[in-house]
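Section 3.1 - Work completed
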Amino acid sequence: MDINDIRSLVTLLSLALFIGLMVWTWRPAQRAAHEAAARLVFEGEDSPSADAYIARSSEGMRAGFGAARRSTRATEESGNE
């Protein structure tokens, strides 16, 4: 048995393992587990708060940068006096 035979054997075993894992994962008996895992993200959240939405939105980011600029200017102006 030379190195090419070993490489072929490893390739075939890897392919068989991959196909076996895909069949085991997507079998119909796993459907309930997949649906439960998909719902985990939403458990404990009634609805996102408006503050959290504004902070992540582009409008909130613009307001945040503007507030930071105004704060910096106010600090610079008070330091110059």
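Second construct:
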Amino acid sequence: MEHLFRSRNPMTESTRTELLSIMHRFVEKEIDVATFVSTYQFAWKKWRDTNELYKPDKLHSSAYNRAFTAADCYQPETDYKTDWAIGENQLRSEISEIITEVQTINALPLAIGIGCKTGVSAGAIISLIEKACGQIDGKPAALYTAEEKCAEPALGEAARRLGLPLVPIARAALKEAAPRAVTKSSRVLALFGVPSVAETAALAGAGPGSQLVLPRVSADGVTCAIAASKETP
């Protein structure tokens, strides 16, 4: 199942850990500003250049891109902030704010959207959910699916074994979330009127303004997507 995640190239936990560690070391003055700028920019470009065509983890990548932009604006001779340059103290303050933003993102409850074919096993659902959740930070709040799917026995069993509520999402709510989905399936569109059940269920479950942190992945007749609210918990 590893190929499922290579094809989508989400920002992995190891990438986020590396970037966050560099920022922390700079704010705590364990590394100087020149080292921070060069090391952080190298680490960010290493991820960005291999994933530039598809960057699904919008919340994390947006925060870390802010840090890259700030580092790019640093000028050694600047003691103040202008429209195009910032000094060391301003850079350290900006990075400190971004660390807080990342910590807020990591604390957001996750909405797990699920789609599945009739007759799938609870084990297949659990396996894909655990694999998906292993790619991101955060605590699952609930499983969400189209209300027509809630009668599927395996979904109820998977939710029970995971200790999570199974929440039905009405067709109207799925359609409202559809513009924020990134996966398009003509078959699903014909059956449910939305491009992806898993993605729209996750987005609807996470609330207005939510974003996908992991777009749809699939295996063994099951699809899974994860979304988080942009609001502070």
